[in-house]
Amino acid sequence: MPAEGVLDFAQAPALVLNEEAAPLLANSEAYANAVANPVKITAETPVSTFSIDVDTASYAVVRSFLDAGQLPPAEAVRVHEMVNYFPYAYPAAQGDQAFQPMISVMPTPWKPGTRLVHIAVQGTLPAIAERLPLNLVFIIDTSGSRDEPNKLPLLKQSFTMMLSQLRPSDQVAIVAYAGSVGEVLPPTAAGERAVILDALDRLAAARRARKGLRWRMMWRKP
Fold it and tell me: What does 43-102 look like in DSSP terms, one character per residue?
């Protein structure tokens, strides 16, 4: 038997939590941005780099403000994340290629006599049909600060959408901390949709947050 307070999942992390009540923190949502790149003369600086990861959060943030009838803060608007939000059906890399580049040049709509260069990169697509069964453990913050429409309720909505993408052989477990600390759902086959959704529906934001959570990650060999 595992020690009290230890969640002993097969092939999944367990947690030892030391909880101490603390007042809720004020909403600390902020947007960290790097300094905008200046315009450069390509004849003088012909080499450029770009990140290979894709972030898309800005689109959803901007949309939520507009849906509420408000303009978003300027620092929340990140053009590259809004562009990356949409799928473009670029051709996938073939054979041993790590990625497939796509380059196009077009006139600049707002400044005649100049050109825009569009560079796209499509990495190798994973063989999803051949993947092994997943064992997913979701650690969900249920502190009082999560009790807003765009936080815990939105997470529940997104979780439901994600669940429909899993296979019956996949496993899902849920651990909640802050308002309710401990196991909410033991490892459960994704095919048991009603059981998983019932556990998800029981999650509720607490009135008080927790601090001093001490996490000890460990794995149990099968």
Answer: TT-------SS---HHHHHHHHHHHTT-PPPGGG--HHHHHHTS---PPPP-TT-SEEEE
- What is d(CA 142, CA 31) in angstroms, rounded to the nearest whole number? 22
Give me 96's structure tokens. 């041993």
Written as six digits, the tokens of 134 are 């997943």
Query: Distance (Å, rounded) from C-alpha 206 to C-alpha 146?
Result: 8
* DSSP label of 178: S
Instruction: Please report the domains of the chain, with CATH numbers, ordered by start residue.
Output: 7-19+132-222 (3.40.50.410), 90-125 (no CATH)
Quick check: 140 and 158 in contact, CB under 8 A? Answer: no
Contacts of 215 (CB under 8 A, 6+ apart): 15, 16, 17
Residue 9 CB neighbour total at 10 angstroms: 19
- Which one-letter DSSP state was computed for residue 144? G
Query: What's the pTM?
Result: 0.61
Print pLDDT tens along the chain (222 aa): 444 443 444 444 444 344 444 444 555 677 877 777 788 888 898 887 777 778 898 999 999 899 989 999 998 999 889 988 998 888 888 888 888 888 999 999 999 999 998 888 888 878 888 889 999 999 998 888 788 888 899 899 999 999 999 999 999 999 988 755 688 999 999 999 999 999 999 888 765 544 444 344 334 434
171 DSSP β-pair partners: 135, 189
CB 81 within 8 A of CB 57: yes
